[in-house]
Amino acid sequence: MTPHDSRSSTSGAAPTLGALRIPLPPTTLFVCVLALAYALPGLFGHDPWKSEDAIGAGIVVQMLSHGQWLLPHLAGELYLDDGPFYYWIAAACAKLASFALTLDDGARLASAAGVIATLLLLRATARELRGRAQADAAMMLLLGSLGLMVHAHETLGELGMLFGQALALHGMALAPRKPHKGGIALGLGLAAALLSKGPLWIFATSVTAFAVFALSPHWRTRSYLLSLGEAALAFAIPVALWAFAAWRSDPTGAMAWYAAQWSGLGLPDLERALNRLRLLSWAAWPAWPIALWAVWDRRSMLREPGLMLGVTASLAALVVLFATSDPREVQSLPVLLPLALLGAAGVERLQRGAVNALVWFGGMSFSFFAALVWLGWISMMTGEPDWFARAFTRLEPGFVASFQWLTFLAALALSAGWIVVLFRSDVRSPYRSVLYWACGSALLWGLIMTLWLSWIDYGKSYRPVARSLAAALTKAFPRGVPCIESRNLGESQRAVLDYHADIVTRRIEAFGKSRCPALLVQSQPGDEDPSLSHEWKRIWEGNRPRDRERYRLYIRTH
Question: Which of 292, 293, 318, 450 has the fewest beta carbons closer than 10 A?
Fold first, then answer.
């Protein structure tokens, strides 16, 4: 036990608010409240947003309304980027919560469950390897990672993969002491990851499982070999059952899905490598500098179990990240987990200057942006300061703000909690550095998703566009349109049209030209194709406020 694990005790009267102090490492109750404060804001009260959130809602619609449970489908077409596991959970949550929540709000409950389960599994893994203090540090490092903030609240298959990765790492940590439980957890975690995002990312976790056996005496035992055998069974059984059922249901689709998982791989060129480094520089902050410090500071102890698992898992995840061609920042998520596990070993040994720098930078940055969010909300409510209010109006013309007590009180509670963290946390503890980043991330996201949510949703929602399009189709085809051809329609747009208006199109990019009597085109302002006038007549045009995406509906003239 380290000196930071100790807890001061008091006797006599209950402590007053002025005597309230946050011990570090924090109590279990504190980290549970922090996890909920991080995971819940932003789940409810808004429509599906572009891009991943809309796609996830569209897949859930296809499962619940059209029975596409085995392979993900989006707006009537096979979706090749994800597996079904996360969306099974999201569809179940949406169904169970349908009495109180809309489908997309209910589906996002799976995101909260996945994020909280991932945090708790990471904490349990670090505690198994290095004790309570580093368990809290690992959890706070992941919470403070900027790359997790937005994607943790979307309907996103990567969150299922992240949960599977956390479960597999926990199985590896547990296996030397409890080989049966560890092996089953490892196998089920790999299965969940594969069924969420395909076989690519389980490659990194599988390599880690064998690497620790080869490199560390802690895992080089007969009991760990037994765990690996049990993991193989726990992995193979659910995956084989799903693969057989998917192949029996749609052989062509199953083969297409499997083949698509390996597309886009290759040796990284310089441009791709630099893009990945730029992505990790902010998405994995502050985990990556602390992880590097842990490796340097304990370079003579790298075979110690906690360091060995963190190093091997981080290196394997980085290799896969640099080998993929997908440029989206969501690809950084699988790297955050092992970096947080590795960085936890370095927090306690941070030098005073590094601790003070992280504390100062985190405290000042999050306080400044929190104040900016509050100022923006005040300007939306009162019109003052005038220059700020005009900026909001210019960005989302037509938006009318309304005061809501529930969101206001939630924002007040988050801000009060931040003030307590700033002034009542243990100033002598190095864990204060990661506490600020974890609490600051929860604060900033929570304030934006309470005070600014209605303003953001006004500009990002496709509901008005979809319903206006549906009304135009009903007017043009009172008895219903047999099919709609579409051009340049993005995946997010196809998802929201299906979700809001039950509009499914035949994409010319996938099916070629057709004889559909209606055509929907997505383009930019001024990009209308003059050749369409020979065969088509435009009857409708729509877009979101200040959105450069234009949607034009045509009917065939001959």
Answer: 292
